[in-house]
Amino acid sequence: MRKRQPAEPYRIKSVEPIKLLPREERVVRLRRANYNIFKLDGADIYIDLLTDSGTGAMSSRQWAALMLGDETYAGASSFRKFEKTVREIFGKRFVIPCHQGRSAENLVFTTILEKGKFVLNNTHFDTTKGNTLHKGGIPLDFPCPEADSDDPLPFKGNMDCIRLDEFIHARGSEQVAMVIMTITNNSVGGQPVSMANIKETSAICRKHNIPFYFDCARFAENAFFIKRDEAAYHDKSIAEITTEMFSCCDGAMMSAKKDGLANIGGFITLDDEELYHRLTELLILVEGFPTYGGLAGRDLEVLSVGLHEAMDYDYLDFRIDQVKYFGEKIKAAGIPIVEPTGGHAVFCDAGKLLPRIPPGQFPGQSLTVAFYIEGGVRATEIGSLMFGGIDSETGKMAYAPRELMRMALPRRVYTNSHFDYIAEAAEKIVAGKDKLRGFEIIREPVFLRHFTCDLKALNEETVFVDT
Ligand SMILES: *Cc1c(COP(=O)(O)O)cnc(C)c1O
Questions:
Q1: Which of 295, 309, 393, 406 is exposed most, by the fewest CB atoms within 10 A?
Q2: Looking at the predicted structure, is the pLDDT value of residue 467 above 60?
Q3: Rounded to an integer, what distance in angstroms lies between the CA atom of residue 237 and that of residue 318?
Q4: Percent of the chain with pLDDT strictly greater than 70
């Protein structure tokens, strides 16, 4: 294994101190939080890998752009700049700003979705699924078969085009409100989608006359994978690849908290003029006037710069490699991971690491707790705590297909030595893994239980690896 990753392609101009609390204090705080890491405060955490959303570091150019924010209610110059940027990058006629990804989804589904109609996706992100259900739609996933494989194949985020086409034929295209491609495919591990697959999906949608949209939070990371791993694109720039990707869809919704390199923001971009007018009517009701859409002028300035910076080849090359490097280190420490690593996170397979802890006792949570106690690191369980529970249809207990733990990497925030530090904590956890025990839920809400539930350690003494 390589000794170190190439050095960061930036230097640090402003620092934010972080502090590792003493181990005993971490234990106290975690007990107080009933072993739910969402209930810890930011100040309790040393390295926070809970999410890559809205947690990136802005560049000096973005901080400078902030001061140019035009806070004019209607027709602000900051909006004109933002509109021009989005049109240039994505090639669509209309640009609707909104405050984050889920508000874009809500606007789109409220406007176009009729009850009982299907929304088909390579894999719905949870808010996309939630917003579809909320409007009476039926969200269905068509991940490619390789998504479940243990082999490190490229483009595991792809759509299963055969099943997609069969489904549309069987149900009739008038039953399908929209096909969405999530790039990268967040829910299967930030895995990318190939250009070939985008084109094939687009052709199916055109054939059946169904609107085809992107959920494109990580479009630049996806474009990088296409350049790196798809033979015809090695010599194309990220901008050219992005243009080609978006020439295949009718529009897109974006959470700009990811590849917008901003702490807040989102947008819809599309060609359909009639739909644009319907969307902006609703936008004015729920988000704001069409030239700010729930954002401040300064946010729009920051996004105009961030969208371009996210497409910088050196930045992307470093970022995707940093995720890979971190994954290699965690694997070398003895924790099985999902391979290949995707664009924004490393997924640890807690089910494989801790086979003696049954899914109903949440091995992913045991590993999450161990990382906090051992290193002050916050990760998140992506297993039966998040996806399991009593199935509303069968009344039986359901479990997630895999017991995972996700460590998401904020953009431009942590240096390589932070990841080396986490890998050392991983080694200690692996050395003491036989001592780890499971958890039991003692209180849970009806929806999205992982955010707020309380847990009890099945054996207090053995929760904490101590080597
Ligand atoms: C984050 C995300 C969203 C939701 O965006 P928010 O900005 O968190 O509201 C939607 N889709 C995908 C793929 C995402 O990663």
A1: 393
A2: no
A3: 16
A4: 98
**DSSP states of 228-262:** HHSGGGTTS-HHHHHHHHHTTSSEEEEETTSTT-S
Q: Which residue has the tokens 């988000």?
A: 287
* Residue closest to 358 by CA, chosen among 429, 431, 427, 440: 440
The region, left, alpha or beta by phi > 0 then psi within -120 to 50, assigned to residue 67 is alpha
127 lines ligand 1 (CB under 6 A): yes
Asked if 217 and 373 count as a contact pair (C-beta separation under 8 A), the reply is no
Token couple for 41: 């405060």
How many whole angstroms separate alpha carbon 228 and alpha carbon 346?
19
Distance, CA of 423 to CA of 66 (rounded, Å)? 36
- Compute the distance between CA of residue 229 and CA of residue 428 in angstroms, rounded to an integer: 35
Q: Which of 134, 255, 411, 448 for mutating ligand 1's site (highest number of atoms within 8 Å of CB)?
A: 255
Task: Check if 102 has its Cβ closer than 6 Å to any atom of ligand 1.
Answer: yes
Please report where in the chains the tokens 């409007």 appear, as a residue: 135
User: Does ligand 1 lie within 6 Å of residue 184's CB atom?
Assistant: no
Counting every residue written for the chain, the total comes to 467
Question: Could you read off the pLDDT of 416-439 as tens digits, one per residue?
Answer: 999 999 999 999 999 999 999 999
Coil, strand, or helix at residue 448?
A: coil
Q: DSSP 3-state assignment of 9?
A: coil
- Scored b (16 or more CB within 10 A) or e, 439-458 reads bebeeeeeeebbeebebebe
Atom of ligand 1 nearest to the CA of 102: 9
- Tell me if residue 418 is catalytic: no
DSSP state at residue 337: B
**Sequence-separated (6 or more) residues with CB below 8 Å from residue 242:** 89, 90, 219, 220, 223, 311
* pLDDT for 53: 97
Task: Please give the distance, rounded to the nearest whole angstrom, from the Cα atom of residue 207 to the centre of ligand 1.
Answer: 29
Distance 343 CA to ligand 1 centre (A): 15
- Reply yes or no on whether the pLDDT at 448 is more than 90: no
Listed range (205-219, 230-244, 440-454) with the worst mean pLDDT: 440-454
DSSP assignment of 358-370, as one string? Answer: -GGG-HHHHHHHH
Amino acid of residue 363:
P
> 266 CB under 6 A from ligand 1?
yes
